[in-house]
């Protein structure tokens, strides 16, 4: 079954009233998941509200019943991977096994500089991510004390207690489209690969490449969940859609590139369907207006029934 959820940009005004309302609306309307980014501030422009990632996910664990939720993604630069693993295991247990732990290298220099967090060059951040993935996997999946000696992180007789209730702990997600670094890393460590704002043709090409990398690791496509993050721009009538697009600031070129899902109900269903045929199993549909629950409810009403059991 195709899974459809929503994705929020954490630094774009996410606060407690909005988070509570979004979680409630998403679950009541039948969305499969809610994912959020992990940032302290925007890359530029005005600073807005932004809830701390793990506190917000702990709230989701105890105030929802059915939806999955998680980070898309948590930069390894913000917190030590041992602490992240502890948070992830505890929140997954609290939710009854509904957390997905998305991990990334971090990219936004502004937030690091403002909050006094070292922002290393990409090569260093990538090395930190790979070591963090190794540390995380050992802590979540080993019932015996772990040893690890990396350039950035070390473990010495470390064991995560209590052991995660879910065998192996929460699944690990790696997002990105990079064919030479990100995809091989996901094939090695991830339970879910999340492509980021690419069109159908590019997705097919990247998915085929991912399957090659999986095979080289002795894994198959069945060992990986294939998901896609993209923006959805939906309105129930063409007139309302045209007005929305005029006010959105999205260029015609961006719309023509096919990296977003844009339209009324029939068009959105068709565009999601084309991506399902290309191999997407789960959608994280970016919803920028965190106060617009009316159109989110209409999206659920008009689109989700086409992708149910």
Individual helix count: 11
- The stretches of 5 or more residues where confidence is low (pLDDT under 50) are none
Q: Output the helix-strand order.
A: EHEHEEHEHHEEEHEHEHHEHEH
Mean pLDDT: 96
Shape: globular
Beta-strand portion reads 15-25%
Distance between the terminal alpha carbons, to the nearest Å? 6 Å
Q: Major sheet, described briefly?
A: 8 strands, parallel, barrel
Structural class: alpha/beta
Q: Radius of gyration, Cα only, in angstroms?
A: 19 Å
Number of DSSP-assigned strands: 12
Describe the structure.
This protein is α/β, with parallel strands linked by helices. The chain contains eleven helices and twelve strands. It is globular and about 60 Å long.
List the helices and strands and how they pair.
Layout: E1 3-8, H1 16-29, E2 33-36, H2 53-63, E3 68-71, E4 74-75, H3 81-95, E5 99-104, H4 109-114, H5 122-141, E6 146-149, E7 154-158, E8 172-175, H6 182-189, E9 192-196, H7 200-216, E10 225-234, H8 238-248, H9 252-256, E11 261-263, H10 265-277, E12 282-286, H11 293-303
Parallel strand pairs: 1-2, 1-12, 2-3, 3-5, 4-5, 5-8, 8-9, 9-10, 10-11, 10-12
Antiparallel strand pairs: 6-7
